[in-house]
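C-alpha coordinates please, single chain.
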Amino acid sequence: MKRIGTRLVLLLCTVLSLAVASSAMAGASYSQKAQPYEGQIKSIKIDKCGMQPGSCEGSIVLAKSSNKEEVTLAIKPGTWLKRGDQFITIDELGVGNYVKAEAVQLPGQPLQQISILSSEG
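Here you go.
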Protein backbone atom coordinates (compact mmCIF):
# COMPACT_ATOMS: atom_id res chain seq x y z
CA MET A 1 0.00 0.00 0.00
CA LYS A 2 2.85 2.36 0.84
CA ARG A 3 4.36 1.64 -2.58
CA ILE A 4 1.18 2.79 -4.37
CA GLY A 5 1.10 6.01 -2.31
CA THR A 6 4.73 6.77 -3.21
CA ARG A 7 4.05 6.23 -6.91
CA LEU A 8 0.97 8.44 -6.72
CA VAL A 9 2.94 11.25 -5.08
CA LEU A 10 5.69 10.91 -7.70
CA LEU A 11 3.14 10.99 -10.52
CA LEU A 12 1.40 14.08 -9.09
CA CYS A 13 4.75 15.88 -8.69
CA THR A 14 5.63 15.09 -12.32
CA VAL A 15 2.29 16.37 -13.60
CA LEU A 16 2.59 19.55 -11.50
CA SER A 17 6.13 20.28 -12.72
CA LEU A 18 5.06 19.77 -16.36
CA ALA A 19 2.11 22.11 -15.89
CA VAL A 20 4.31 24.83 -14.38
CA ALA A 21 6.93 24.44 -17.13
CA SER A 22 4.38 24.60 -19.95
CA SER A 23 2.65 27.68 -18.52
CA ALA A 24 6.02 29.42 -18.13
CA MET A 25 6.91 28.68 -21.75
CA ALA A 26 3.51 29.90 -22.96
CA GLY A 27 3.90 33.16 -21.06
CA ALA A 28 7.43 33.68 -22.37
CA SER A 29 6.27 33.82 -25.98
CA TYR A 30 4.21 36.97 -25.32
CA SER A 31 7.13 38.98 -23.93
CA GLN A 32 8.20 40.24 -27.35
CA LYS A 33 9.10 43.88 -27.74
CA ALA A 34 6.87 46.24 -29.67
CA GLN A 35 8.43 47.47 -32.92
CA PRO A 36 8.02 51.18 -33.84
CA TYR A 37 6.72 52.14 -37.27
CA GLU A 38 5.93 55.47 -38.86
CA GLY A 39 4.87 56.58 -42.30
CA GLN A 40 1.86 57.20 -44.51
CA ILE A 41 -1.15 54.92 -44.80
CA LYS A 42 -1.28 53.45 -48.32
CA SER A 43 -4.50 51.46 -47.82
CA ILE A 44 -7.02 50.49 -45.16
CA LYS A 45 -8.97 47.24 -45.02
CA ILE A 46 -11.84 46.80 -42.55
CA ASP A 47 -12.67 43.11 -42.14
CA LYS A 48 -15.62 43.32 -39.75
CA CYS A 49 -17.34 45.68 -37.34
CA GLY A 50 -19.53 45.25 -34.31
CA MET A 51 -22.37 47.48 -33.18
CA GLN A 52 -20.25 49.54 -30.74
CA PRO A 53 -17.75 52.24 -31.74
CA GLY A 54 -14.20 50.88 -31.64
CA SER A 55 -15.29 47.31 -32.36
CA CYS A 56 -14.00 47.22 -35.95
CA GLU A 57 -10.99 45.18 -36.94
CA GLY A 58 -8.87 45.22 -40.03
CA SER A 59 -5.44 46.22 -41.24
CA ILE A 60 -3.47 49.07 -42.75
CA VAL A 61 -0.66 49.06 -45.28
CA LEU A 62 1.93 51.55 -44.11
CA ALA A 63 4.64 53.03 -46.35
CA LYS A 64 7.51 53.35 -43.88
CA SER A 65 9.14 56.78 -44.05
CA SER A 66 12.60 55.44 -43.20
CA ASN A 67 13.17 53.30 -46.30
CA LYS A 68 10.02 53.38 -48.45
CA GLU A 69 9.17 49.74 -47.68
CA GLU A 70 5.58 48.77 -46.98
CA VAL A 71 4.34 46.83 -43.98
CA THR A 72 0.86 45.48 -43.24
CA LEU A 73 -0.26 45.89 -39.63
CA ALA A 74 -3.39 44.41 -38.03
CA ILE A 75 -5.79 46.52 -35.97
CA LYS A 76 -7.86 44.49 -33.52
CA PRO A 77 -11.05 45.73 -31.81
CA GLY A 78 -10.32 48.01 -28.86
CA THR A 79 -6.96 49.25 -30.19
CA TRP A 80 -6.22 52.81 -29.05
CA LEU A 81 -6.02 55.16 -32.02
CA LYS A 82 -5.20 58.75 -31.16
CA ARG A 83 -5.43 61.90 -33.28
CA GLY A 84 -4.30 64.96 -31.34
CA ASP A 85 -6.23 64.85 -28.07
CA GLN A 86 -9.09 62.70 -29.44
CA PHE A 87 -9.45 58.95 -29.67
CA ILE A 88 -10.65 57.65 -33.04
CA THR A 89 -11.56 54.31 -34.61
CA ILE A 90 -10.09 52.53 -37.64
CA ASP A 91 -12.92 53.76 -39.87
CA GLU A 92 -11.86 57.37 -39.14
CA LEU A 93 -8.36 56.81 -40.54
CA GLY A 94 -7.70 57.87 -44.10
CA VAL A 95 -5.32 56.96 -46.90
CA GLY A 96 -2.44 59.42 -46.79
CA ASN A 97 -2.63 59.96 -43.00
CA TYR A 98 0.80 60.07 -41.40
CA VAL A 99 0.90 57.69 -38.43
CA LYS A 100 3.24 56.49 -35.71
CA ALA A 101 2.54 53.01 -34.41
CA GLU A 102 3.92 50.29 -32.19
CA ALA A 103 3.19 46.70 -33.19
CA VAL A 104 4.03 43.26 -31.87
CA GLN A 105 4.09 39.86 -33.56
CA LEU A 106 1.90 37.44 -31.61
CA PRO A 107 2.48 33.70 -31.94
CA GLY A 108 0.14 32.12 -34.47
CA GLN A 109 -0.86 35.46 -36.01
CA PRO A 110 0.13 36.23 -39.62
CA LEU A 111 0.37 40.02 -39.14
CA GLN A 112 1.98 42.19 -36.52
CA GLN A 113 -0.74 43.67 -34.32
CA ILE A 114 -0.81 47.39 -33.55
CA SER A 115 -0.79 48.12 -29.83
CA ILE A 116 -0.64 51.95 -30.04
CA LEU A 117 -1.25 54.22 -33.00
CA SER A 118 -1.22 58.02 -33.28
CA SER A 119 -2.32 59.80 -36.43
CA GLU A 120 -1.72 63.24 -37.84
CA GLY A 121 -4.43 64.48 -40.20
